[in-house]
Amino acid sequence: MSNESLEIYMQKAIEETYDGIHKGDGGPFGSVVVKDGEIIGSGHNMVIRKNDPTAHGELLAIREASQKLNNFDLSGCILVSTGEPSLLSLAACLWANIDKIYYGCSNDDIQKSVFVMKSWMILSTICHIFLKTI
């Protein structure tokens, strides 16, 4: 996958993040699931809005992708997320057979920049600078 494509998908994840922030849905995290160059699922953190500690952006994107494909097996898909997936989200990726995960901020980046400084707008800058692959 080209860096250019990855940047496009990361930008979509960042847009999801901003959407969630503006709505007050939850933390500053957004994700997209991509298959064959098409975004088939997207989501942002909705823990606060849904009063659901499992409503992570990655999980919502995976749910939407699974519904769109009518299949829980997301082999051939990638997940692009603004933040390093939590253990819960990572487990969901493994169960869904996601091929690869790309994320913008490591958990250390998030702790230092987002929650300590309380500056959610810095997230998009960090995501572009620290694009990582696991």
Q: Would you mind describing this structure in some detail?
A:
The protein has 134 residues and is an alpha+beta fold. The chain starts with a helix and ends with a strand. It contains six helices and five strands; from the N terminus they run H-E-E-H-H-E-H-E-H-H-E.
Short description:
The protein has helices spanning 3-23, 47-50, 57-69, 87-95, 107-115, 122-129; strands at 30-35, 38-44, 77-83, 100-105, 132-133. The chain is α+β, with helices and mostly antiparallel strands.
Number of strands: 5
Count every helix, treating DSSP H or I runs of 4 or more residues as helices.
Answer: 6
Largest sheet: 5 strands, mixed
Mean pLDDT: 86
Q: How do the strands line up in the largest sheet? A: 2-1-3-4-5
Structural class label: alpha+beta
Assembly annotation:
single chain
Spell out the key features of this protein.
5-stranded mixed beta sheet; 5 strands; 134 residues; alpha+beta
Write the layout of secondary structure elements.
Blueprint: H1 3-23, E1 30-35, E2 38-44, H2 47-50, H3 57-69, E3 77-83, H4 87-95, E4 100-105, H5 107-115, H6 122-129, E5 132-133
